[in-house]
Amino acid sequence: MKKSLVLIVSCLIIGVLLLPFGCGEKVKPIKIGINAPMTGDIPKVGEGTKFAAQMWLEDIQASGGLEVGGKKYPVELVIEDNESKAESAVKANTKLITEDEVLAIVGPQSSKQAVPAGGVANNYQTPMISPWSTNPNTTKDRPYVFRGCFLDPFQGPVLANFIKEEFGYSKAAVLYDVASDYPKGLAEFFKQAWENLYGPGSVVAFESFTTKDADFSSQLTKINRSGAEVLFTPQYYNEVALIVQQAHELGWNKPIVGSDSWGSAETVKLCGKDCYGLFFSTHYAAAGATGATKAFIDRYNKKHGYIPDDVAALTWDSLRIVQEAIQSSGQLTGNVAKDRQSVRNALARIKEFDGITGKMTFTEEGDPIKCAVIVRISDKGEFEFYKSVCP
Amino acid sequence: MKATSENSPKSNRSRARAFREYFSGVPLLGWLAGGLVAVLLERFLGTPLAHLLGLPKVPVLFGCVIILKKPLLIPGTVIYLLLVYVLPVGIVARLCGSVINRLVSWLFNLSPTFSVIVHLCLLYGLLSIWSGISAYRLLTLKLTLIAVIVTLSLNIINGYMGEFSCSHPGFMALGAYSASVVTLLLFVDDRVFGAALLPEALGPFMFPVALIGGGIVAAVGAIAIAIPSFRTRGDYLAIISLAFMFIVKSMIENLEIVGGPRGLSSQPNYVNLPTLFLWTVAAVWIINNFVRSVLGKALNAVRDDEMAADAMTVNTRRTKFVAFLFGAFWAGVAGGLLAHVLRYVNPGTFGIQKLAEVLAMVYFGGLNSVYGSIVGAVGYSLLSEALRPLELFKWIIIPLLLILVMIFRPTGLIAFKEFNVMNLIRPKGKPIREESTSKGGVLIRS
Fold it and tell me: For residue A17, what pLDDT is reported?
């Protein structure tokens, strides 16, 4: 027993000696939480989020901190991995709010995490912006939760109108993943918008599949036979490549149109020449961008070696919105609960915020009013700006 | 005892044994009292002590998160843990051991049931003070308790019955959705089902009914697997149950009435710690009684040799059927609790990832053992929470640990061990053992 006592005492002494290294706190930093899927199904999304957030932090650090009410505060990012799971996102948000005492949270990205995590943020009265979540429930009846992207009820009609104006077709086919929240929602909104334009029955094929399916030949054959003039498929990058390639193999030579989920750096890499010349709607266009957008893209590309996708751009914008809200909230009291309240009020007041994905104004629900961009995949595989559609 | 510890050869094993013996006279109540002192200490002195040691806050989850994120704070964290947890627990347990032992034997002679209740009250007090310090701790604790129920319910099928069932996420989904639909329909004004049908005040009282309803729905779902699959054996059940899991998931995804892939949200906040604690205790108690009953023994006989069991007049079909439905029932209850803790369910939660998690907890803890399930669920949940700052490396460390467990203890950490409550609360005069000393798989002497 003596030995263990000696061991404990010596541990204590060593600990006390090492203690000064752990101490040393000056001005209380502003903490911003990032709740991102670093592991799990969509690690690329988490990576983009993290890189954009780190770039933002570099900017702040380069200018010596965030100036609020005439005083400079250092900024700290707390990045939590939500493993692409609902429970983990809830845990991560709870930890960020109660343990790390962050002032505001950016994330989670996908709706299946943003909906429950938004509930937590709202309960603890902490402002949260989900850059990428499109589920209406994320922000509905939650005064503290905002989002950085437009919603599907807006995107569906935008695409339907674009196809009408661009091609003048009247028969459309839709192929979507029935098991995934986002494609399903968007497919339905598109169908509704299309039928408003051309009347019932104008969507001649409304075919579905399930997540992780890799063979779409039966659905595509049906679509081919249905006499559709255009195919709309609101899928993620890995499925887009498969669908487009298989459609071309089956003899489909009419246009294929996509949604903002196409806007990943991986789409063209996986899809290759098959995707050249296709259109999709998204938040911003990388090729041919100007001004701040171009500066962001170039910087990101230089640092990480690829063109940032929309998640990175939206995260960047969300962080900038948070920054602006903190700065325009006037003054930080040091009392986190009070500061969160004033940041949330400042967020709700933001008008015509000039982001790299367009101008934003928040509605009552915390959803932004912003423009969508139609992008054409060029013959070099770049996302070219084609036109902009505003609400 | 002191003499043995000083004169023993200096091998680690004997030192560990000496250490164990030093504390062997401490009954469970002593440990609980020590824990209670530790958490009270943390409650009242934790924050100043943490500041004194240079820590930003009281370390949650025993400092793992701090250690991994800011290595410079390791010494402070270690001192904190020593001062707040290790020393008080050790000192109280050791010094008050004899007093508490007398108290325990008095309690035990008075009425074992009363003694159990005293133990549970102490345990609850300990947990509620511990989790009262931060909401993050509370959430982790809640999800851990739910994991205990799920793991136990799967252990009935995979451990005691010896089949390999993959349908547990499916049962949980059935339970979660049924319970959510009941509470949302009856007690909450929400967007999917409209206005509440019953007054909101009734909700908390009717919640157990909703949970049991969820469990029953899950059990009914289990019949769908049980009937066709019990005609076959072994791997076939695994395949059929895996298919069942996907069927449930796709079914919910396509049921617009419960929100489809978007899921259901805004469940009422009924699951507070006392409720969840009671449900967990009930689950452990009922499942433990089940596996120790005649039916449970028959189940073991069926697992070891179905033909022989049949010859010994065990109704093998009925035994398997009941056990399977029983396991599914508790999985459904756990699903209902989970839905009301997260206050959101979507079908995507109940997929392969969940299955892997539950299976890992069962096999990590130990087959055919209530102890093992508790250790596995608590260990896995805390470990995966504590290692979260490592991001990707977490998914290397945890599987690696699982592989090591499978190599050195192929049936899990604490397998094939009975959970005997009477032995647990008995006064300790002679060296028996404490919960964590599982090595050698000593059976409890009664």
Answer: 55
* Shared domain check, A158 and A78: no
Which residue ranges in chain A fall short of pLDDT 50?
22-25
Most A CBs within 10 A among B79, B94, B146, hence the mutation to make, goes to B79
Residues in A closer than 8 angstroms to B57, CB to CB, are 99
Mutating which of A124, A137, A139, A213 best tests the B interface, going by the most B Cβ atoms within 10 A? A137
Decide yes or no: CATH 1.10.3470 for domain B135-423: yes
State the best of A181, A189, A208, A213 to mutate against chain B, taking most chain B CBs within 10 Å: A181
* Residue in A closest to B344 by C-alpha: A116
Residue carrying structure tokens 């039928």: A195
Convert A273-336 into a string of H (helix), E (strand) and C (coil). Answer: HHHCCCEEEECCCCECCCHHHHHHHHHHHHHHCCCCCHHHHHHHHHHHHHHHHHHHCCCCCCCH
**Whether residue A156 is found in the same domain as residue A278:** yes
C-beta of residue A260 within 8 angstroms of C-beta of residue A235: no
A36 falls within a domain:
yes
Q: B338 to chain A, minimum CA–CA distance in Å?
A: 9
CB spacing of B262 vs A111 below 8 angstroms? yes
Residue A350 is part of which domain span?
Answer: 30-149+290-370
Domain with CATH 1.10.3470 in chain B: 135-423
What is the structure's pLDDT at A14?
63
Q: Mean per-residue pLDDT for B69-89?
A: 87
C-alpha count within 13 angstroms, C-beta hemisphere, residue A78: 24
A264, A282, A300: which is the final residue of a domain? Answer: A282
Query: Which of B1-15, B30-44, B220-234, B415-429 has the least mean pLDDT?
Result: B1-15
CATH code (residue A130)? 3.40.50.2300
- Preceding peptide of B59 cis, ω within 30°: no
Is A178's CB within 8 Å of B261's CB? Answer: yes
Q: Is residue A92 part of a domain?
A: yes
CA–CA separation, A374 and B6 (whole Å): 79
Which residue from B minimizes the CA distance to A209?
Answer: B250
In a domain, A385, yes or no: no
What's the structural domain count of chain A? 2
Query: In B, which residues are within 8 Å of A116 by CB distance?
Result: 265, 342-344
For residue B105, the model assigns a pLDDT of: 87
Task: Tell whether the model's pLDDT for residue B273 goes beyond 70.
Answer: yes
The pLDDT tens digits of the residues spanning B186-226 come to 888 877 777 788 888 888 889 999 999 999 999 999 998 88
Are the C-beta atoms of residues A48 and A315 closer than 8 Å to each other?
yes
Give A89→chain B minimum CA distance, Å.
10
Are A129 and A238 part of one and the same domain? Answer: no
Interface test with B, best of A5, A42, A95, A189 (most B CBs within 10 A): A95
ipTM of the complex: 0.83
- Which of A246, A265, A282 is the last residue in one of the domains? A282
Contact B342 A12 (CB under 8 A): no
Q: Are both A157 and A123 inside the same structural domain?
A: no
For residue B338, is pLDDT > 60? yes
CB contact under 8 Å between A185 and B262, yes or no, is yes
Q: How confident is the model at residue B438 (pLDDT cuts 50, 70, 90)?
A: very low
CB contact under 8 A, B135 and A81: no
Long-range pairs, B47-56, Cβ under 8 A, ≥24: B49/B80, B49/B83, B49/B84, B50/B76, B50/B80, B53/A19, B53/A22, B53/B77, B53/B79, B53/B80, B54/A19, B54/A22, B54/A23, B55/A22, B55/B80, B56/A25
* Chain B residues in contact with A94 (beta carbon < 8 A): 135-136, 139
Residue A80: list chain B partners with CB under 8 A.
Answer: 388
Are B333 and B215 in contact by the 8 Å Cβ rule? The answer is yes
Residue B372 has a pLDDT of 92
Residues A267 and A189 in one domain: yes
Q: With contacts defined as CB-CB under 8 Å, which chain B residues touch A39?
A: 391-392, 394-395
A11 contacts on B by Cβ (under 8 Å): 78-79, 82
